[in-house]
Amino acid sequence: MKRMSIRPILIHPDPRLKKHAAPVEGVSDEMRKLAEDMLETMYDAPGIGLAAPQVGVLKRLIVMDAVKEKDAKPQPMVLFNPEVVWTSPERNVYEEGCLSIPEQYAEVERPAEATVRWLSIDGEQQEAKFDKLWATCVQHEIDHLDGVLFIDYLKPLKRQMITRKMQKLKRELAREKA
Ligand code: K1U
Ligand code: ZN
Q1: Disulfide check for 21: which of 38, 50, 69, 145 has CB 3.0–4.6 Å away?
Q2: Model confidence pTM above 0.90
Q3: 99: Cβ below 6 Å to ligand 1?
Q4: Regions in the chain scoring below 50 on pLDDT
Q5: pLDDT tens digits, residue range 28-46?
Q6: Residue 108: strand pairing partners
Q7: Which of 54, 58, 28 is nearest to 42 (CA)?
Q8: Ligand 2 centre from 150 Cα, in Å?
């Protein structure tokens, strides 16, 4: 059993965050290791979700743990090839963040509930209905698999402002590294 590792998270703008990810063809040991590394990376960040493209892997894999209460038992979830099969007509607004767009938050409106089908870490088909923060998170993460970021739902001016801040942050990080 290989040790889990924390993988670097890509920061917007990055062309890999705008690509459509490919389906996972069978849940291999390599894919299971990626899922475990992603959970480790998500908890370390900290965050409540992470999609494989955010660690530079263009595969349809997401992980989540949207338990909000501080002392509650962790509820890690690994979803291969997740697909939204139903959304509620009712909508919810949440203030979203993104580990690829650090320290930027904005209100996004999405369906309040979503039913998702996916393959588990054991390769078994699963289906569940998500609500509240879990529904927002699963839709945000599946968007990442289609190259969509939460800022794509904002007005162009606000999106541009955030993108410029991220370009500046990336320049500063590159300078620190040099
Ligand atoms: O996909 C990502 O970049 C992760 C993102 C998920 C998300 C957050 C909010 C709404 C929808 C989706 C994050 O986890 S951002 C960090 C965050 O929300 C958080 C961090 C620490 C404690 C609790 C939440
Ligand atoms: Zn995100």
Answers
A1: 145
A2: yes
A3: yes
A4: none
A5: 999 999 999 999 999 999 9
A6: 94
A7: 54
A8: 7
